[in-house]
Specification:
Elements (H helix, E strand, L loop, with lengths): L2 E7 L15 H21 L4 E4 L11 H13 L4 E4 L23 E3 L5 E5 L4 E5 L21 E7 L13 H7 L3 E5 L8 E3 L2 E5 L15 E8 L2 E8 L5 E7 L5 H10 L8 E7 L1 E3 L6 H8 L3 E6 L2 E3 L2 H4 L5 H12 L6 H13 L10
Parallel strand pairs: 1-2, 2-3, 3-4, 6-7, 7-8, 8-10, 13-14, 14-16, 15-17
Antiparallel strand pairs: 1-11, 5-6, 9-10, 11-12
Helix pairs in contact: 4-5, 7-8
Bound molecules: manganese (II) ion (MN).
Length: about 375
């Protein structure tokens, strides 16, 4: 049986920034580029026949030249691999898109510039079908039927199967009618299993290496074989760090306890990126030292979100001879007849504001 080896990736956002990481941003962005280059190296070493990049290779339609040239050179090195790019809503084919450049990309690279089309690779008996965004939005499905022949039919496309309308909406009937053997999808950054509609297999590979907390855990590509009427595509991790969102109750804890708790309950390793929400109720005027805890945890990056509430002894505070005492006295009088949540929260935040800066999250 004739089969070809395929790697499917998507949503690389190669030139993206990651502002929230602050001083760690530059390192992390470079790591993500290196992870993509790891995919290309894998294609070279394993002589992969087809690399399908299902959109948002770049974060913007006109990325910085240094990144465009760097990828051009990297692609050129993969001379045994056909690389098919389906531009997405982030890197759509704009008027001055680098995708439009003639004699710039190496011969092994093909970019889908607009509507659905098929590219025959005679030597392999393969046709690769795809399309590309030409603006931010694409309201009608670009997925069409492929030729009824005995070629292996690969598809690559940036699109949305979740039912929203702006980003090349694709439905399962269109997938089964397409006649494709494997459809490599991008746009949803979360990986799906390899699914099947009619005789067509399809999947989202997810992004290759997370940028935000909405892309949690280990990320990578799908890699395997496709043949007429079937495929065997497996997840292959390539991400260099993972992002995790955690939360826990810090009632009755000290700074040291909190740091130890974090250390003992990590979802990944110390090298990963965390957002940890501190919940619960602290008493006795205790204020967690967020900067110290972050430092003490020894994590590559952690953002601690303070969502715990503070419990003060208001009966003691109201008799204090100070501005704080005055404030508590006034608030308590306001709540004499009815205690409501908003006033209680205002009292708590107000008292806290006498000792530190207060950040308030409305939700
Ligand atoms: Mn994307």
């Amino acid at each position: 049986m004739r089969k070809v080896s395929v790697v499917h990736c998507a949503d690389i956002h190669y030139d993206s920034d990651i502002k929230f990481l602050g001083t760690k941003e530059r390192k992390r962005c470079e790591e993500r580029r290196a992870s993509f280059e790891k995919i290309l190296k894998m294609c070279r070493v394993e002589k992969i026949n087809y690399l399908l990049i299902a959109g948002d290779l770049f974060d913007t339609p006109e990325p910085e030249e240094k990144y465009v040239k760097r990828l051009r050179d990297e692609f050129e090195k993969c001379s045994d691999t056909y690389i098919f790019i389906s531009p997405g809503n982030h890197d759509y084919v704009s008027v001055s898109s680098p995708y439009r450049r003639e004699d710039f990309w190496s011969d092994n690279v093909y970019i889908f510039m607009d509507e659905w089309e098929g590219v025959n690779i005679e030597e392999d008996g393969v046709t690769v079908y795809g399309s590309g965004f030409t603006q931010i939005h694409c309201k009608n499905s670009m997925l069409k039927r492929c030729e009824n022949d005995d070629y292996i039919h690969l598809g690559v496309m940036h699109g949305d199967i979740s039912g929203t309308e702006k980003y090349n909406p694709i439905n399962r009937n269109e997938i089964s009618d397409s006649g494709l053997d494997y459809l490599a999808l991008g746009h949803i950054h979360k990986r799906t299993d390899v699914l099947k509609s009619g005789n067509t297999y399809y999947s989202y590979s997810g992004c290759h290496d997370g940028r935000g907390f909405d892309e949690p855990g280990i990320q990578g590509v799908y890699k395997g074989y496709v043949w007429e009427g079937g495929c065997e595509m497996k997840f292959y991790p390539v991400s260099s760090r993972s992002l995790y969102r955690m939360q826990f109750d810090i009632s009755e804890m000290s700074d040291e306890n909190i740091a130890q708790y974090i250390e003992a309950h990590l979802m990944g390793t110390e090298e990963d990126i965390y957002e940890i929400t501190l919940k619960g109720k602290v008493t006795g005027g205790y204020e967690p030292d967020i900067a110290w805890i972050s430092e003490r945890s020894g994590l590559f990056y952690v953002r601690l979100i303070e969502e715990y509430s503070r419990h003060y002894d208001y009966e003691v505070l109201r008799s204090e001879k100070s501005v704080r005492g005055e404030f508590v006295q006034k608030m308590m009088t306001l709540m004499e007849h009815e205690e409501d949540y908003v006033k209680m929260k205002a009292l708590e935040l107000g008292v806290t504001a006498f000792s530190k800066e207060v950040n308030y999250h409305e939700d």
